[in-house]
Write a structure and sequence with these properties.
α1 (12-23) packs across α6 and α10 packs parallel to α11 (325-336). The protein has helices spanning 12-23, 45-55, 73-76, 82-91, 108-111, 125-134, 154-161, 200-207, 246-262, 293-310, 325-336; strands spanning 2-4, 28-30, 37-41, 64-66, 96-101, 116-120, 138-140, 167-170, 181-184, 191-194, 211-212, 239-243, 267-272, 283-288, 314-318, 341-343. The chain has two domains: 2-212, Alpha-Beta Complex (DHBP synthase), CATH 3.90.870.10; 239-343, Rossmann fold (3-Layer(aba) Sandwich). The protein has an eleven-stranded mixed sheet with strand order 1-8-2-3-7-4-6-5-9-10-11, sandwiched between helices. Strands 14-13-15-12-16 form a five-stranded parallel sheet, with helices on both faces. β10, α8 and β11 (211-212) form a beta-alpha-beta unit. Helix content is 33%, strand content 19%. The protein starts with a strand and ends with a strand. It is α/β, with parallel strands linked by helices. The radius of gyration is 20 Å and the shape is globular. The chain contains eleven helices and 16 strands. The longest helix is centred in the C-terminal third of the chain and has 18 residues, at 293-310. The structure holds adenosine monophosphate (AMP) and magnesium ion.
Length: 345
């Protein structure tokens, strides 16, 4: 069942019903400010196993546990470092996930056998209301089929999971549109595992030194965050990033478009508002203005899905500076493109 939860007051009954499903061990898809989540009772191993089955998610890729406040923290983690308090005060609720030593009550299914657990307090009113009403922490990965771009609307969730979930709360489009920042606090120097809505610069301002993981270094050998080894965010068509001096990038994309059109191939583009007028292609997705990486990030996953729907044979994308939200944007683009980069000369 799909419930309209755009107006929190009107959605009270639906949130109660969704919370009841969580309490009984079922699955509920719900909006957060980052992407839609597929949630289950984080204390129940069988409930959590249902998430993995519904998504086709590999069992060794752990889930993020979503909470609505500090109560019950002692059951979830075995240690609360000072950095955690600092960051929670500043960035929770918000798009920051922190990895901490795991508490006894968290089943190994949630953490994929690791002795750490990932925690986040989301900023979306529907997500917070659901967690509070269920009176349980909710384990939730993104509500997409494993490997597909994360869902940023209720329609995306249905595209992937219709028939596999019991309840979907439709809270409208997600505002951040990329998954949360994941920060591992179990090392001496905090380790950024995944860039996201809370930027590296913000973390450095609060913590001083932060180590950054280069996710592309880990292909098959054990990576520090299990999720890193899997194909992610991938559109169906092969995707390439075109980088270099701006005017050269435009020329290179034009050239590749021409060559492929001659061969009868359909080309899809992911470009900026500034450059859209220079291009002709079978499908063009405009992410937004280069000056607003936040806006471009919020459109990325929807654009990737739209290019899939357009049935293109190949996708070309512009690249961006890796500062602020640009770091998270480039991280997802690189992974969607499986690190295929064309240098414009
Ligand atoms: P998703 O919810 O689909 O965005 O995936 C959650 C991400 O958090 C994955 O990349 C996981 O590998 C990562 N993650 C979850 N728990 C842990 C943990 N205990 N240690 C390191 N990474 C984690
Ligand atoms: Mg995911």
């Amino acid at each position: 069942m799909v419930a309209n939860a755009r107006d929190l007051k009107k959605a009270k009954k639906d949130i109660q019903q969704a919370a009841e499903i969580i309490r009984r061990g079922g699955l509920v898809a719900f909006p957060t400010e980052t992407v839609y989540g597929l949630g289950a009772n984080a204390f129940s191993a069988p409930a959590v196993e249902r998430i993995f089955r519904a998504k086709g998610r590999p069992g060794d890729n752990p889930l993020i546990v979503h909470i609505s406040g500090g109560e019950g923290l002692g059951e979830l983690v075995s240690e609360v470092p000072q950095n955690f308090r600092l960051l929670a005060e500043k960035y929770w609720p918000g798009p920051l996930t922190m990895v901490l030593p795991k508490g006894l009550r968290v089943p190994r299914e949630v953490t994929a056998g690791l002795d750490t657990v990932a925690l986040r307090m989301p900023q979306h009113p529907v997500a917070l209301a659901l967690i509070r009403t269920a009176r349980l922490p909710i384990a939730a990965p993104s509500a997409n089929l494993s490997g597909r771009p994360s869902p940023t609307t209720a329609e995306h969730v249905l595209e992937d999971l219709a028939g596999r979930i019991q309840f979907l709360l439709d809270g409208g489009p997600c505002t951040v549109g990329l998954e949360s920042t994941v920060l591992d606090l179990t090392h001496k120097v905090p380790l950024l595992l995944r860039p996201g809505g809370v930027t590296l610069e913000q973390l450095q301002e609060t913590l001083g030194e932060v180590q950054v993981l280069d996710s592309m270094e880990f292909k098959d050998e054990a990576p520090p965050s299990p999720g890193l080894k899997y194909r992610h965010y991938a559109p169906r068509a092969p995707m390439f990033l075109v980088e270099g001096e701006p005017s050269r990038v435009v020329k290179e994309i034009q050239k590749i478009c021409r060559e492929n059109r001659l061969k009868g191939r359909r080309v899809g583009l992911l470009v900026t508002e500034e450059n859209r007028a220079y291009f002709r292609a079978e499908a063009i997705e405009v992410l937004g203005f280069r000056s607003s990486p936040e806006e471009m990030a919020s459109r990325l996953f929807d654009s990737l899905r739209r290019l899939d729907t357009a049935g293109v044979d190949l996708i070309l994308a512009e690249t961006f500076e890796k500062t602020g939200m640009g770091l998270a944007l480039m991280n997802r683009l690189c992974r969607a493109a499986q690190n295929r980069i064309i240098k414009a000369r």
